[in-house]
Amino acid sequence: MSHYPHLFSPLTINGMTLKNRIIMPPMGTNMATLNGEVSQEQLEYYELRAKGGTGLITIENICIDFPFASNGTTQLRIDNDQYIPRLFKLTETLHKHGACVSIQLNHAGASAYAYRLEGQTPLSSSTTPSKKHGNIPRPMTHEEIYHAVEKIW
Q: Are 90 and 46 in contact (CB under 8 A)?
């Protein structure tokens, strides 16, 4: 590995030490349960990557404010405390194999899953239509932006 002498060296970032510099970026698995919890299949998917030696695993995009932030029927959710136990179990499972864990917070904006909106208009930063399915959103108010931020803090 002379081309990559530091690849398997530890790296400390703001107090968090990665066992190596192999990082798994967020990738949608579409394996969450229909109500947005971590499924057993999804837990095993991530655990295999941790067992393989990945230093940092970033969990796929997670809905912060259902239904407006949701972009699929099997997307993880974190907008309610009921989701914490399975996310905690996932994190502990990955830590058991020495992997550090991060998560990609997501608000779908214009790409919000129309079926889940039940006729409501998607929320976004502008009225630019979704390239995914043509939804035309409305810009969020300041209050709606603050609400979305509060959901993740």
A: yes
Interval 30-74: pLDDT, tens: 999 999 999 999 999 999 999 999 999 999 999 999 999 998 889
The boundaries of the domain holding residue 47 are 11-152
> Which segments within 22-99 are labelled E, that is strand?
23-24, 56-63, 76-77
Assessment of whether the complete model's pTM goes beyond 0.85: yes
Stated length of the chain: 153
- Helices 84-96, 40-51: crossing angle, 10 deg rounding: 20
* Three-state secondary structure call for residue 110: helix
- pLDDT (tens digit per residue) in 86-111: 999 999 999 999 999 999 999 999 98
CATH code, 95:
3.20.20.70
